[in-house]
Amino acid sequence: MKPRNGLFWGIFLLTLGILFLARRNDWLDVNWHTLVDFWPVLLILAGVNVILERRGNPAAFVTTVMLAVAVPVTLFGLFSPNRDRSEYGFRWDNDNEDNDGNADEDESDADDEDANDDYQSERNKRRLEGDGVKTNTFAEPMQEDTREAVFKLAGGAGRFIISNPSSELIKVDTRNSIGNYSMSVERDATTRIPTIELMPTKENQTIDLKDGNYENRVDVHLNTKPVWTMDVGLGAGQGELDLSAYAVKQLKVEGGAIDIDLKMGAKADQSDVKLDVGAASVTIRVPKEVGCKIKKDGALNLNQLDDFTDVGGGEYLSPGYDAAKKKMLIRFDGGISSFKVVRY
């Protein structure tokens, strides 16, 4: 979206200013809090926009404009009080109907709010602990001739974790209340480099967030012997990526409204890290013995760069960068983001 950054942020700020002005002067009688219910539209628009941009399609102009309007409208609703309930945040439930078709019964028992709350909590618990959550484990054996490997992860909204190593080439545990994941492994006939792809299955899914019972958790464990190239695409939620035990040659992370905690190690002589995020909070931890260069692009970023020197042009260098034997390049492109780099 770089070519249209100016257009996006111009419309974004214009829309946000109009919304504040309208609410301040009571021009619109709107329960702004209800706008939060349409947050999945942001993911859809962002995905369509990325596809059109990469294909050079002129229609990307239209999706950029739509996204620039939709983002501030949703954020405005998120941080506006619920006119009917005097609260902030996402509204997941619907107090006016029962998913089991007992709307009339609930209406007659409306005075017994405590009993309804207990019933709702117990039903939510049963759905999460019962057949509503599917668990799966994927694994690929490690082969002795594997010196390099490629890992591609695609995920929507949820919690995504890469942590402790495995004796397998890869081991993945998933927990999903909606849909499922599939994993494929293909090895290059010449180099024998495996490419692992983990992504949601393509099936018709109906997401019902009325009870708040949506779970999507992916735990990934990799082998430490290969040199890894990783491509991670996340929608919204949380990404806990502890890669300190792995030799990572190249890492690309794309995300929307997500909180990312990324810990890199010193296993590779040269690492190239690229992050392209939207409304995100990003923390990157880099070993002190690794010389680190940061190239930053994007607007409205809150930056905290530990001990880095600003060399101009959006570039920052860690102390002793030129003399460091191992080096890392971090390229960051973010929208409404908090960007923090910590040396440990």
Helical amount: 10-25%
Give the strand tally.
19
What series of H and E elements makes up the topology? HHHHHEEEEEEEEEEEEEEEEEEE
What does the radius of gyration come to? 23 Å
Quaternary structure of the protein? single chain
Strands of the largest sheet, in order across it? 5-6-2-8-10-12-18-14-17-16
Distance between the termini: 33 Å
Q: Residue ranges: pLDDT <50 for 5 or more in a row?
A: 82-110, 123-130, 204-211
Mean pLDDT: 78
Sheet with the most strands, sense and barrel status:
10 strands, mixed
Count of separate DSSP helical elements = 5
Strand content: 35-45%
| General form | globular
Kindly give the count of domains: 3
Secondary structure class reads alpha/beta
Question: How would you describe this structure to a colleague?
Answer:
The chain is 22% helix and 37% strand. The chain is of the alpha/beta class and 344 residues long. It has three domains: 2-78; 100-130; 135-343. It has a ten-stranded mixed beta sheet, with no helix packed on it. It has a nine-stranded mixed beta sheet with strand order 1-4-7-3-9-11-13-19-15, with no helix packed on it. Helix 1 runs parallel beside helix 3 and helix 2 runs antiparallel to helix 3. The longest helix has 20 residues, at 5-24. The relative contact order is 0.11.
